[in-house]
Amino acid sequence: MTDAASAAAALTVMTGAAQAERAQQTEAPNAAPLLVAIDGPAGSGKSSVSRAAAERLGFGILDTGAAYRSLAWAAVETSADLDDSAAVGAILDVWTYAITLRGQQRVTVELGDGVVHDVTAAIRAHDVSGLVSRVSKHPEVRERLNEMFRRIVAESGLPGVVIEGRDITTVVAPDAPVRVLMTASPEVRAQRRAGELDGLTHAQVLADIEARDAKDAQVVDFFTPAPGVTLVDTSNLNFAQSVEAVVEIVRAAQGVAEESE
Ligand SMILES: Nc1ncnc2c1ncn2[C@@H]1O[C@H](COP(=O)(O)OP(=O)(O)OP(=O)(O)O)[C@@H](O)[C@H]1O
Ligand SMILES: Nc1ccn([C@@H]2O[C@H](COP(=O)(O)O)[C@@H](O)[C@H]2O)c(=O)n1
Fold first, then answer.
1. Fold for the domain defined by 7-19+31-259
2. What is the pTM of this model?
């Protein structure tokens, strides 16, 4: 499939100036989607397992880390100080952010100058992973992104959305009918990630993910399940088993909802 065709096949949700214009042209969706909130530390499998589970369920998937990564990418691109909350906020004032909720992930950022950057690959770079905690530590930035996430989900028009990150079960969607904390031991997470990152040893990957988790955990708790949140430890589960575990939790919640109707 060409880039253009795959972008058309996927559902993209825009934010910012372009989103406001689009909202005037389209009708509001009918019902709020069923929300599946998934949190967890780096490399626990949140993104890949959430994506596969969402496909099985016919739901969309919102990867919230992609927005923080895109913001870090944009700060570097515009030489903004990542530690300065106002400078990072100024990017949010002008940017138009778009991410696909179905199909292959595509993330684009426009920084107010009309140039649309496809950052899908760039935001996964090792240096962006090392910088992203510096933008995600700002409470004002988090509040604005959280608003954006809620809007993206509400306007998706989908029957359900799996939304994954660090504070989805606790801050972004604490009332979601399904809330999961996905964990795995640091060694297992590093092992999985090392397979993806050429040139980095297991020890380097382990050090990187532990350092990022430690910084991120100063802002939000994604190690302990909040009350009502189901813990899924994937340390001893293969990929298919992890997906099955999430799908089962969602199906059980759907069954309970149907019984009470
Ligand atoms: N249960 C599992 N068994 C084996 N491999 C897995 C399992 N879950 C995830 N993986 C693999 O582990 C790697 C990391 O998973 P993923 O990118 O989904 O983690 P993540 O929690 O979203 O990480 P990050 O927060 O750093 O983006 C991927 O290569 C994925 O395919
Ligand atoms: N809800 C979230 C999601 C992400 N972050 C920050 O973004 C970084 C990248 O997230 P990945 O899921 O792609 O690894 C992460 O390290 C956090 O700094 C966040 O704060 N809240």
1. Rossmann fold (3.40.50)
2. 0.90
Residue whose C-alpha is closest to residue 151's, from 1, 33, 58, 48: 33
- The burial of 15, by beta-carbon neighbours within 10 Å (0-12 exposed, 13-18 middle, 19 or more buried), is given as buried
CA of 164 to the centre of ligand 2 (A): 9
Any atom of ligand 1 within 6 Å of the Cβ of 188: no
Ligand 1 pocket test: pick from 38, 49, 128 the residue with the most ligand atoms within 8 Å of its Cβ: 49
One digit per residue, the tens of pLDDT, for the chain of length 261 reads: 333 333 333 456 556 544 544 443 344 445 789 999 999 999 899 999 999 999 999 999 999 999 999 999 999 999 999 999 999 999 999 999 999 999 999 999 999 999 999 999 999 998 999 999 999 999 999 999 999 999 999 999 999 999 999 999 999 999 999 999 999 999 999 888 876 766 788 888 899 999 999 999 999 999 999 999 999 999 999 999 999 999 999 999 988 666 776
ipTM value for the complex? 0.97
Q: Whose CA is nearest to atom 16 of ligand 1?
A: 45
